[in-house]
Specification:
This protein has 272 residues and is mainly beta. The protein folds into two domains: 2-156, Lipocalin; 164-270, Lipocalin (Beta Barrel). It is 8% helix and 56% strand. Strand 9 (113-124) and strand 10 form a beta hairpin. The chain is elongated, with a radius of gyration of 23 Å.
Length: 272
């Protein structure tokens, strides 16, 4: 259902403005003009509230409105099979300000789904808030739906501090620092903007420092310094940054045999 709603929301971004006609007189000083980047998505279905649906790949999606009454939508979608973030076909359309920032969608159809929605666009500082509310008929069932998509002005977008390549400096368990070998300190992890990471571990084998198999997975900023990292046994970790983002501190805890262990890993930012 979440995949369906996410797809539905992206379609609605296009449909909301594509259903309007060109009106150069109203568009010339409109707040909507500019490039906007998808930032947050909230959905309420029959009273059930859903949020935190966007991946870092989804957040690369942008919509740009031009003074001539046209827009361009660029959507990114994560391909689970190939573990890559893929740009979808660019969508072009037209838009019009109806003075009250309200748009109507009647009987807009996606195969298997019929929608009857009211669309409202508001602005708050550097954010554009697109709200869609009404009903969705899916598999013969009429469902109340509310979708809120928050965009941020692309000029104000700042990449996540975690993006970049980080090398292990210290490891502290239950408040006690481990003595790491020079080989172990070669461990590094690189985070990419599209929500993918690569981890390289090293271990000693006799006098040699051997590279372990590269680990790959996905990362997601959950807010409040909390991150989700796939392919590890911990559901979420706390990540903070110091010294002008040249140092990254990763903290988490896990329970093994009813004993809780606290871990702190300190990384330094290194060139790719």
């Amino acid at each position: 259902m979440k995949k369906l709603l996410l797809f539905l929301s992206i379609c609605l971004i296009a449909a909301s403005f594509n259903s309007c006609n060109n009106d150069d007189d109203n568009n010339s000083t409109d707040q909507i003009i500019g490039k906007w980047r998808v930032n947050q998505l909230f959905i309420k279905i029959d009273g059930q509230y859903e949020d935190d649906l966007l991946t870092e790949c989804d957040k690369k999606s942008t919509i740009q409105f031009f003074e001539n009454g046209t827009y361009q939508l660029n959507v990114f979608e994560f391909n689970d099979n190939e573990s890559i973030c893929v740009a979808q076909e660019t969508i072009n359309g037209t838009w019009e300000n109806l003075d009250d920032h309200s748009y109507n969608l009647e009987d807009f159809e996606i195969p298997g789904i019929t929608l009857s929605l009211e669309v409202n666009v508001t602005f708050d500082n550097n954010k554009m808030i697109l709200t869609l509310s009404g009903t969705m008929n899916f598999e013969g069932e009429e469902i109340d739906v509310m979708v809120k998509i928050i965009f941020i002005d692309n000029d104000d977008f700042k990449p996540d501090n975690i993006i970049g390549k980080w090398q292990l400096e210290k490891e502290i368990e239950n408040g006690i620092e481990h003595e790491l070998t020079e080989c172990a300190k070669k461990m590094n992890i690189q985070f990419f903007e599209d929500g993918i990471y690569e981890e390289k571990d090293f271990y000693n084998e006799g006098l040699e420092c051997i590279t372990d198999e590269v680990k790959k997975g996905n990362w997601k900023n959950l807010g409040n310094n909390m991150y989700e990292i796939t392919d590890i046994d911990v559901p979420e970790i706390k990540v903070t940054f110091e010294s002008a983002n040249t140092k990254m501190i990763v903290e988490f805890s896990e329970t093994i045999d009813n004993i809780t262990h606290t871990e702190k890993l300190i990384f330094i930012n290194v060139n790719s």
